[in-house]
Amino acid sequence: MKPSSSNQPPEDPVRHHSYDGIQEYDRRLPNWWLLTFYGAIVFAVVYWFYFKHSGVAMEDGPRVEAEIAQIEAARLSSGAAKLTDDDLWKMSRNPVVLAAGKTAYTSNCVACHLASLKGKAENPSAVGASLLGTKWITGGKPTELIATVTKGTARGMPPWGPVLGTKKVAEVVAYVLSHHEPGEPIEIVNSPAAGIK
Questions:
Q1: For residues 154 and 196, is the Cβ–Cβ distance under 8 A?
Q2: Which is it for the CA torsion 146, 149, 151, 156, positive or negative?
Q3: Does residue 113 sit within a domain?
Q4: d(Cα 140, Cα 120) in Å, to the nearest integer?
Q5: Domain count, the chain
Q6: Which residues are bridge partners to 18 per DSSP?
């Protein structure tokens, strides 16, 4: 006995195209899927309007940036304020500090001041000034060098304090000071573009 066709569910229509012999049924998407999709679109529009145009929601960006700036300023000032000229001269005679300072100098400062520390005096196309001799643009005392490296100069030297941190800045300054003697005369060269930011 043949089963009656009224007991079988109707067969879904098949689409007219096929790929590699594979045919697709022409079925509607389930309602739960459509509601989820349309709900996500509505949510995205409401979310976008609420956070970007309503002014009700506060963005964290400016607050976080201000807090990071405060932390960095405190971190930089706490270490650099403790160092004196005498401390830096002593560091410039310590071989361990000099090795670390030379490594940091080679990684970050050679591009502008050259490996010889002569900068423009050796190569006119170099960007940085000479770190040898007694002529300084922004001050040649050890603590002035710390301030220059940390804060940069208006002449074009970027602030290295946030990049290197207090310890490495002190090591770089000690390395530069190792090429000088305590008490040597310092001549400040007047430059209209000189100065600390």
A1: yes
A2: positive
A3: yes
A4: 17
A5: 1
A6: 23
In a domain, 167, yes or no: yes
On the CB side of 66, how many CA atoms lie within 13 Å of its CA? 5
CB within 8 A of 2, min separation 6: which ones? none
Extract the runs of DSSP E, i.e. beta strands, from the chain: 14-19, 22-25, 135-136, 187-188
Q: How would you label 58-88 residue by residue, b for 16+ Cβ within 10 Å and e otherwise?
A: eeeeeeeeeeeeeeeeeebeebbeebeeeeb
The whole-chain average pLDDT of the chain stands at 81
Q: Quote the tokens at residue 172.
A: 């770089």
Residue 26 lies in a domain: no
Claim: this prediction has a pTM higher than 0.85: no
pLDDT recorded at residue 196:
38
Write down the residue that tokens 């012999």 correspond to: 21
- Answer whether residue 25 shows pLDDT above 70: yes
Q: 3-state DSSP call for residue 135?
A: strand
In a domain, 110, yes or no: yes
Host domain of residue 136: 83-188
Identify the CA nearest to 170 among candidates 56, 110, 81, 107.
81
Instruction: Work out the number of other CB atoms within 10 angstroms of the CB of residue 35.
Output: 10
The CATH number of the domain where 123 resides is what? 1.10.760.10
